[in-house]
Amino acid sequence: MKLTFIGAAHEVTGSCHLLETNGKHILIDCGMEQGPDLYENQELPIAPGDIDFILLTHAHIDHSGLIPLMVKNGFKGQIVTTFATADLCDIMLRDSAHIQEFEAEWRNRKARRSGESLYEPLYTMQDAQDAVELLAPCDYEQRIELCKGVEVRFTDIGHLLGSACIEIWITEEGLLRKIVFSGDVGNINQPIIKDPKQIKEADYVVIESTYGDRLHGDERPDYFGEFTRILRETFQKGGNVVIPSFAVGRTQELLYFIREIKEKNLLSDFPNFDVYVDSPLAIEATSVFTKNERGCFDKEAMELVDQGINPLVFPGLKLSVTSDDSKLINFDSRPKVIISASGMCEAGRIRHHLKHNLWRKECTILFVGYQAVGTLGRKLIEGAPVVKLFGETIEVAARIESLKGISGHADMNELLDWLGGFESDIKHVFVVHGEDQVTDSFAETVTERFDIPAFAPYSGGCVDLVTNQILSKGNPIVKKKVEKPEKLRAESAFNRTVNAGKYLLEVIMKNEGLANKDLAKLEAQIKNLADKWNR
Ligand SMILES: [Zn+2]
What we know:
By secondary structure, this protein is of the alpha/beta class. Helix content is 36%, strand content 21%. Strand 2 (16-21) and strand 3 form a beta hairpin. The protein is globular, with a radius of gyration of 25 Å. The structure holds zinc ion. Zinc ion is lined by residues 58, 60, 63, 159-160, 184. Residues 58, 60, 63, 159-160, 184 line the site of zinc ion.
């Protein structure tokens, strides 16, 4: 009966823990590392083919993103999670595979030209689809026998649609131990989904600490009022409100608020304004929300559902699925809201909307989420006067606004409140999923507050759950910094392509007056080329 910490140990992403009992190997989460990464993760001590189950707390890629890699490398067991998480994984793992394949294809185009060896994607669409086949969803609050000696229950933790903390009862040689994995603990102020539910008993708790040293503040931001004000002021000037937003979670919150603004007629001068959601992933995610409303939505959202109202749908909502739909948005000159991904403006359709709206002083670019250092979103928030998009220099004349977002994570006090709700004596708390120093400081806070031993393991850290003995604290092996010029090269390659396009247009203009026969030939060649790449 042993627990080994693999990922999100002294780090915020890449959640992965290995539980060994009764001859079975069970992974709790199998996430991808995202963003800056400080420590090397230890390899899993066993082959993916020898893992019997993956238990998944929620669909965010930093908890689920390496599952297709496990499948590619031989995992054939069940992936047990809630119904809503399974639905979200279906779209998010496929989206992740698409990104992996796209990046590999881009690298390989260059590798082929230079004779370098080809780059294999981390995993493919087929691997993601195979992973989806292994999803074995269950209901919240249902205690199920996973295998002999292991029972599990998923309880709503209010972080994302379908998110759960996982309770595991382990019986081995007549001894019972209960371990609870918090997953990411939600913030009680989030709309649509329920608040985190309290668990009462555990011998061991593995808890996240993303905000383990921070408070959201007593004063709740007037999100709703601020949002309405920004819409009104922008529409009065005849501009658009462009919102870079994460496709899953934040976009649905925005729709929820906009429906209410429309319902209460808070923008009485602009009752019929249109709202475009221009992100296929966001559109799919919205339908997953609607499909899972029963069991996942909070009281306020369910009151609407019970009246026959979809809380994420309203008159004027327009969904853009194809890239042609996307392009048409900017032909409509009426003031409107455009919600598009990616949330930090690094990729995706949002970049087209920024190109069309950033230079217009009557428009507003509204940020609703965290913008990491070095991203285009961060540059705009920090007041960049010009930015480069598609090789063009674009003046930033639009107003740049930020809404103090509703965090998806519990703050320090909420985490402590949740821990304080346990009624049984906890033998040990393990602190994971936080920044390097934060995990240690939160562990100290837990011990001070509750007089419970608490410890933040490094990757490879290991504990015997029978004896409550820490077998290893893990190894803090600092990752060597790898320069990543690929992205820069991607940008310049893209700029060169845009310039080639402009050159083509110049050539066309020069040939005005050419014989119709020759023009038809040129037209056919251009159409042929365009059709080939329009995918
Ligand atoms: Zn999460």
